[in-house]
Amino acid sequence: MDDVSESGVIKTDSINVAILDSTYLRSDLSLNDEMISKLESEWNIELPKDLITDFNSKNRLKSEILDKFESYFEYQIFSSKEYSEMIESANSWQIIAEQYPEIKTILSFSRVGLNSEENKALLFVNANCGPLCGATYFLLFSKSESKWKLEHEYQITVS
Predict the structure, then answer these.
(1) 154, 147, 153, 143: which is closest to 121 by C-alpha?
(2) Domain that holds residue 58
């Protein structure tokens, strides 16, 4: 693969990422009681109730994602509607490769849930890089001295 060096380091300047233009949360991986228990067990913490409530409230409906990312790699905003139509096809990645050969990975994000102190944030991320290539995560961030830091991650799926 041209995007990975011999040592296995990803060459970020050669990868083109597409980010869906609206928020996304897989219904089968929603933040329900079972998922909350898994996260709390995996991270050995109790998630703040207000964080859970805010996350679920914000993610009931899709929201537009604005092109405001600061990134060291190339990306483009991609139509969620078009992606949904393509992904329903059995040969979806062949279609994507033919119509958008520069796209190697498609990222989608939930809205960010915050606790009332706004020092904890929860995010769902989906990365799709092919028919048998992808992963989904819940990420928990904490804010200290006005800087956000990834505190915990939980990989839900991988292929």
Answers:
(1) 143
(2) 12-158
What is the SS3 string spanning 111-129?
CCEECCCCCEEEEEEEEEE
Single out the residue of 64, 66, 67 nearest to residue 24, CA to CA.
64
Count of domains observed in the chain: 1
What's the pTM value of the predicted model, to 2 decimals?
Answer: 0.85
C-alpha separations of 44 from 37, 52, 54, 138, 150 in Å: 10, 16, 21, 14, 15
Q: What is the residue-level pLDDT of the chain in tens, covering all 159 positions? A: 455 556 555 555 556 899 999 998 888 888 999 999 999 999 999 999 999 999 999 999 999 998 888 887 778 899 999 998 898 888 999 999 999 998 989 999 999 999 999 999 999 999 999 888 999 999 999 999 999 999 999 999 998
Q: Does some domain include residue 109?
A: yes
Residue 4 lies in a domain: no
Helix (H, G, I), strand (E, B) or coil at 74: strand
